[in-house]
Write a structure and sequence with these properties.
The chain has helices spanning 14-25, 37-50, 66-79, 106-128, 161-182, 208-217, 224-227, 229-236, 263-277; strands at 5-9, 29-34, 55-60, 85-88, 132-137, 188-194, 247-249, 252-254. It has 282 residues and is α/β, with parallel strands linked by helices. Strand 2, helix 2 and strand 3 form a beta-alpha-beta unit. It is globular and about 50 Å long.
Length: 282
Protein backbone atom coordinates (compact mmCIF):
# COMPACT_ATOMS: atom_id res chain seq x y z
CA UNK A 1 0.00 0.00 0.00
CA UNK A 2 3.02 2.34 -0.13
CA UNK A 3 2.23 5.40 -2.21
CA UNK A 4 -1.51 4.85 -1.84
CA UNK A 5 -3.95 7.17 -0.06
CA UNK A 6 -6.85 5.72 1.93
CA UNK A 7 -9.79 7.72 3.31
CA UNK A 8 -11.64 6.02 6.18
CA UNK A 9 -14.77 7.33 7.90
CA UNK A 10 -15.38 6.55 11.56
CA UNK A 11 -11.71 5.71 12.04
CA UNK A 12 -11.28 6.82 15.66
CA UNK A 13 -12.53 3.58 17.23
CA UNK A 14 -13.68 0.02 16.60
CA UNK A 15 -13.04 -1.68 13.29
CA UNK A 16 -12.42 1.68 11.62
CA UNK A 17 -9.43 2.27 13.90
CA UNK A 18 -8.10 -1.24 13.35
CA UNK A 19 -8.53 -0.90 9.59
CA UNK A 20 -6.53 2.34 9.71
CA UNK A 21 -3.88 0.67 11.87
CA UNK A 22 -3.45 -2.29 9.52
CA UNK A 23 -3.31 -0.23 6.33
CA UNK A 24 -0.91 2.30 7.91
CA UNK A 25 1.37 -0.62 8.79
CA UNK A 26 1.32 -1.54 5.09
CA UNK A 27 2.62 1.93 4.26
CA UNK A 28 -0.57 3.70 3.13
CA UNK A 29 -1.27 7.35 3.81
CA UNK A 30 -4.39 7.32 5.98
CA UNK A 31 -6.88 10.18 6.17
CA UNK A 32 -9.27 9.60 9.06
CA UNK A 33 -12.67 11.30 8.83
CA UNK A 34 -13.83 11.65 12.44
CA UNK A 35 -16.19 13.79 14.48
CA UNK A 36 -14.00 14.43 17.54
CA UNK A 37 -10.51 15.89 17.27
CA UNK A 38 -9.65 14.55 20.72
CA UNK A 39 -10.64 10.99 19.85
CA UNK A 40 -9.00 11.28 16.44
CA UNK A 41 -5.71 12.38 17.94
CA UNK A 42 -5.91 9.57 20.49
CA UNK A 43 -6.40 7.13 17.61
CA UNK A 44 -3.36 8.52 15.81
CA UNK A 45 -1.28 8.16 18.97
CA UNK A 46 -2.47 4.58 19.35
CA UNK A 47 -1.51 3.66 15.78
CA UNK A 48 1.92 5.26 16.13
CA UNK A 49 2.76 3.02 19.10
CA UNK A 50 3.05 0.15 16.62
CA UNK A 51 3.86 2.10 13.43
CA UNK A 52 5.88 5.17 14.49
CA UNK A 53 6.30 6.48 10.94
CA UNK A 54 2.62 6.06 10.00
CA UNK A 55 1.25 8.74 7.66
CA UNK A 56 -1.92 9.83 9.44
CA UNK A 57 -4.16 12.87 9.09
CA UNK A 58 -7.52 13.97 10.40
CA UNK A 59 -10.50 15.55 8.67
CA UNK A 60 -13.19 16.61 11.13
CA UNK A 61 -16.84 16.16 10.17
CA UNK A 62 -20.15 15.37 11.83
CA UNK A 63 -21.39 12.86 9.26
CA UNK A 64 -24.99 13.17 10.46
CA UNK A 65 -25.03 16.52 8.61
CA UNK A 66 -25.02 16.68 4.81
CA UNK A 67 -23.37 20.10 4.95
CA UNK A 68 -20.55 18.62 7.04
CA UNK A 69 -20.13 15.74 4.58
CA UNK A 70 -19.87 18.24 1.71
CA UNK A 71 -17.35 20.26 3.71
CA UNK A 72 -15.28 17.14 4.35
CA UNK A 73 -15.41 16.28 0.66
CA UNK A 74 -14.19 19.75 -0.29
CA UNK A 75 -11.36 19.56 2.27
CA UNK A 76 -10.29 16.16 0.98
CA UNK A 77 -10.31 17.35 -2.62
CA UNK A 78 -8.25 20.36 -1.60
CA UNK A 79 -5.56 18.43 0.25
CA UNK A 80 -5.29 15.16 -1.68
CA UNK A 81 -3.86 14.57 -5.13
CA UNK A 82 -5.37 11.10 -5.20
CA UNK A 83 -7.71 8.73 -3.35
CA UNK A 84 -6.88 5.09 -4.00
CA UNK A 85 -9.35 3.67 -1.49
CA UNK A 86 -12.44 5.14 0.17
CA UNK A 87 -13.75 3.08 3.09
CA UNK A 88 -17.28 4.02 4.13
CA UNK A 89 -17.00 2.56 7.62
CA UNK A 90 -18.89 4.95 9.93
CA UNK A 91 -22.08 3.50 11.36
CA UNK A 92 -24.14 3.17 14.53
CA UNK A 93 -27.34 1.64 15.85
CA UNK A 94 -29.75 3.97 17.66
CA UNK A 95 -32.28 3.05 20.31
CA UNK A 96 -34.89 5.64 19.38
CA UNK A 97 -36.03 7.78 16.50
CA UNK A 98 -34.39 11.19 16.22
CA UNK A 99 -33.99 13.42 13.20
CA UNK A 100 -30.81 15.08 11.98
CA UNK A 101 -30.47 18.76 11.22
CA UNK A 102 -31.52 17.89 7.65
CA UNK A 103 -34.70 16.19 8.85
CA UNK A 104 -33.61 12.59 8.23
CA UNK A 105 -33.70 9.67 10.64
CA UNK A 106 -30.19 9.56 12.07
CA UNK A 107 -29.42 5.85 11.49
CA UNK A 108 -30.24 6.21 7.79
CA UNK A 109 -28.40 9.53 7.59
CA UNK A 110 -25.15 8.28 9.12
CA UNK A 111 -25.08 4.71 7.89
CA UNK A 112 -26.17 5.37 4.30
CA UNK A 113 -26.49 8.99 3.20
CA UNK A 114 -23.08 10.04 4.55
CA UNK A 115 -21.30 7.36 2.54
CA UNK A 116 -23.38 8.01 -0.55
CA UNK A 117 -22.64 11.74 -0.50
CA UNK A 118 -18.95 11.43 0.39
CA UNK A 119 -18.46 9.00 -2.48
CA UNK A 120 -20.22 11.49 -4.75
CA UNK A 121 -17.91 14.27 -3.52
CA UNK A 122 -14.81 12.16 -4.22
CA UNK A 123 -15.97 10.42 -7.39
CA UNK A 124 -13.77 12.40 -9.80
CA UNK A 125 -10.72 11.98 -7.57
CA UNK A 126 -11.34 8.23 -7.37
CA UNK A 127 -11.62 7.96 -11.15
CA UNK A 128 -8.47 10.05 -11.61
CA UNK A 129 -6.65 7.68 -9.22
CA UNK A 130 -7.76 4.49 -10.98
CA UNK A 131 -7.40 1.68 -10.25
CA UNK A 132 -9.25 2.73 -7.09
CA UNK A 133 -11.64 1.06 -4.67
CA UNK A 134 -14.74 1.97 -2.67
CA UNK A 135 -15.35 -0.32 0.32
CA UNK A 136 -18.62 -0.05 2.26
CA UNK A 137 -19.14 -1.72 5.62
CA UNK A 138 -22.57 -3.36 5.70
CA UNK A 139 -23.75 -6.20 7.95
CA UNK A 140 -25.60 -9.49 7.96
CA UNK A 141 -28.15 -7.37 9.82
CA UNK A 142 -29.43 -6.36 6.38
CA UNK A 143 -31.54 -9.51 6.58
CA UNK A 144 -33.68 -7.82 9.26
CA UNK A 145 -34.55 -4.72 7.21
CA UNK A 146 -38.13 -3.49 7.49
CA UNK A 147 -39.32 -0.22 5.97
CA UNK A 148 -41.67 1.42 3.48
CA UNK A 149 -40.02 3.37 0.68
CA UNK A 150 -41.93 6.59 1.40
CA UNK A 151 -40.85 6.35 5.06
CA UNK A 152 -37.22 5.22 4.67
CA UNK A 153 -35.62 8.64 5.14
CA UNK A 154 -37.61 9.66 8.21
CA UNK A 155 -38.90 6.41 9.75
CA UNK A 156 -42.06 8.07 11.04
CA UNK A 157 -43.35 4.56 11.60
CA UNK A 158 -40.54 3.46 13.90
CA UNK A 159 -40.12 -0.30 13.75
CA UNK A 160 -37.41 -0.67 16.36
CA UNK A 161 -33.66 -0.31 16.36
CA UNK A 162 -32.88 -3.72 14.85
CA UNK A 163 -35.14 -3.28 11.82
CA UNK A 164 -34.13 0.34 11.21
CA UNK A 165 -30.44 -0.57 11.48
CA UNK A 166 -31.08 -3.49 9.15
CA UNK A 167 -32.66 -1.13 6.62
CA UNK A 168 -29.54 1.06 6.62
CA UNK A 169 -27.31 -1.99 6.13
CA UNK A 170 -29.48 -3.17 3.23
CA UNK A 171 -29.00 0.29 1.75
CA UNK A 172 -25.23 -0.18 2.06
CA UNK A 173 -25.34 -3.25 -0.18
CA UNK A 174 -27.67 -1.61 -2.70
CA UNK A 175 -25.38 1.42 -2.76
CA UNK A 176 -22.28 -0.72 -3.33
CA UNK A 177 -23.95 -2.60 -6.20
CA UNK A 178 -25.26 0.50 -7.94
CA UNK A 179 -21.97 2.36 -7.42
CA UNK A 180 -20.24 -0.55 -9.15
CA UNK A 181 -22.54 -0.03 -12.12
CA UNK A 182 -21.98 3.74 -12.14
CA UNK A 183 -18.19 3.34 -11.98
CA UNK A 184 -18.10 0.59 -14.61
CA UNK A 185 -15.34 1.12 -17.16
CA UNK A 186 -13.71 3.85 -15.07
CA UNK A 187 -11.29 1.74 -13.07
CA UNK A 188 -13.10 2.07 -9.73
CA UNK A 189 -14.49 -0.98 -7.96
CA UNK A 190 -17.20 -0.95 -5.28
CA UNK A 191 -17.88 -3.75 -2.82
CA UNK A 192 -19.72 -4.20 0.49
CA UNK A 193 -18.86 -6.42 3.43
CA UNK A 194 -20.07 -7.99 6.64
CA UNK A 195 -17.37 -7.64 9.32
CA UNK A 196 -18.85 -10.34 11.53
CA UNK A 197 -20.22 -10.03 15.08
CA UNK A 198 -17.65 -7.70 16.63
CA UNK A 199 -17.08 -6.69 20.24
CA UNK A 200 -16.80 -2.93 19.71
CA UNK A 201 -18.43 0.22 21.08
CA UNK A 202 -20.75 0.58 18.08
CA UNK A 203 -23.75 -0.62 20.10
CA UNK A 204 -23.36 1.90 22.92
CA UNK A 205 -25.97 4.12 21.28
CA UNK A 206 -28.46 1.24 21.27
CA UNK A 207 -31.16 0.49 23.81
CA UNK A 208 -30.37 -0.85 27.29
CA UNK A 209 -31.55 -4.25 26.12
CA UNK A 210 -29.22 -4.19 23.11
CA UNK A 211 -26.29 -3.09 25.28
CA UNK A 212 -27.06 -5.75 27.88
CA UNK A 213 -27.26 -8.44 25.22
CA UNK A 214 -24.00 -7.22 23.71
CA UNK A 215 -22.26 -7.52 27.06
CA UNK A 216 -23.53 -11.07 27.52
CA UNK A 217 -22.39 -12.04 24.02
CA UNK A 218 -19.02 -10.29 24.23
CA UNK A 219 -16.95 -13.39 25.09
CA UNK A 220 -18.22 -15.01 21.88
CA UNK A 221 -17.67 -12.03 19.56
CA UNK A 222 -14.78 -11.19 17.26
CA UNK A 223 -12.17 -8.69 18.36
CA UNK A 224 -12.05 -5.40 16.47
CA UNK A 225 -8.81 -6.58 14.84
CA UNK A 226 -10.60 -9.68 13.53
CA UNK A 227 -13.61 -7.60 12.50
CA UNK A 228 -11.41 -5.30 10.41
CA UNK A 229 -9.85 -8.07 8.36
CA UNK A 230 -12.35 -8.08 5.51
CA UNK A 231 -12.19 -4.28 5.22
CA UNK A 232 -8.38 -4.48 5.03
CA UNK A 233 -8.62 -7.33 2.51
CA UNK A 234 -10.95 -5.42 0.19
CA UNK A 235 -8.84 -2.27 0.49
CA UNK A 236 -5.46 -3.85 -0.18
CA UNK A 237 -5.46 -7.39 -1.52
CA UNK A 238 -4.45 -8.01 -5.14
CA UNK A 239 -6.86 -10.96 -5.05
CA UNK A 240 -9.84 -8.61 -5.45
CA UNK A 241 -8.35 -6.35 -8.12
CA UNK A 242 -11.12 -5.66 -10.63
CA UNK A 243 -13.84 -7.44 -8.62
CA UNK A 244 -16.84 -5.17 -8.17
CA UNK A 245 -20.47 -5.15 -7.07
CA UNK A 246 -19.98 -8.01 -4.61
CA UNK A 247 -20.61 -8.71 -0.93
CA UNK A 248 -17.88 -10.24 1.22
CA UNK A 249 -17.58 -11.88 4.63
CA UNK A 250 -14.51 -13.55 6.14
CA UNK A 251 -12.46 -12.28 3.18
CA UNK A 252 -14.54 -14.25 0.68
CA UNK A 253 -17.45 -13.52 -1.63
CA UNK A 254 -20.80 -14.35 -0.08
CA UNK A 255 -24.33 -14.16 -1.41
CA UNK A 256 -26.42 -11.57 0.47
CA UNK A 257 -30.19 -11.87 0.77
CA UNK A 258 -32.30 -12.06 -2.39
CA UNK A 259 -33.67 -8.63 -1.50
CA UNK A 260 -30.14 -7.21 -1.37
CA UNK A 261 -29.50 -8.56 -4.87
CA UNK A 262 -32.51 -6.69 -6.33
CA UNK A 263 -30.85 -4.17 -8.63
CA UNK A 264 -34.13 -2.39 -9.39
CA UNK A 265 -34.32 -1.52 -5.69
CA UNK A 266 -30.67 -0.46 -5.77
CA UNK A 267 -31.45 2.01 -8.56
CA UNK A 268 -34.54 3.22 -6.72
CA UNK A 269 -32.48 3.88 -3.58
CA UNK A 270 -29.85 5.69 -5.66
CA UNK A 271 -32.42 8.01 -7.20
CA UNK A 272 -33.96 8.68 -3.78
CA UNK A 273 -30.53 9.41 -2.31
CA UNK A 274 -29.76 11.85 -5.11
CA UNK A 275 -32.97 13.74 -4.35
CA UNK A 276 -32.34 13.78 -0.60
CA UNK A 277 -28.76 14.99 -1.05
CA UNK A 278 -29.58 17.41 -3.85
CA UNK A 279 -27.07 15.94 -6.28
CA UNK A 280 -27.13 14.27 -9.69
CA UNK A 281 -24.63 11.54 -10.49
CA UNK A 282 -24.73 11.36 -14.28
Amino acid sequence: MRGKTVVITGASSGIGLETARALAAQGARIVMVVRSRERGEAAIASIRTSTPDAQLELVLADLYSLAEVRKAGAELRGKLARVDVLINNAGLIHASRELTVDGFERTFALNHLAGFLLTYELRDLLVASAPARVVTVSSAGHNFARFEWDDLATMNHWKGETFVYGASKLCNIWFAREAARRFAGKGVTSNALHPGPVASNFGQSGSWLFKYGSRLARPFLLTTVQGARTSVYLASSPDVEGITGEYFAKCAKKKPSARARDDASARKLWELSERLCGVSWA
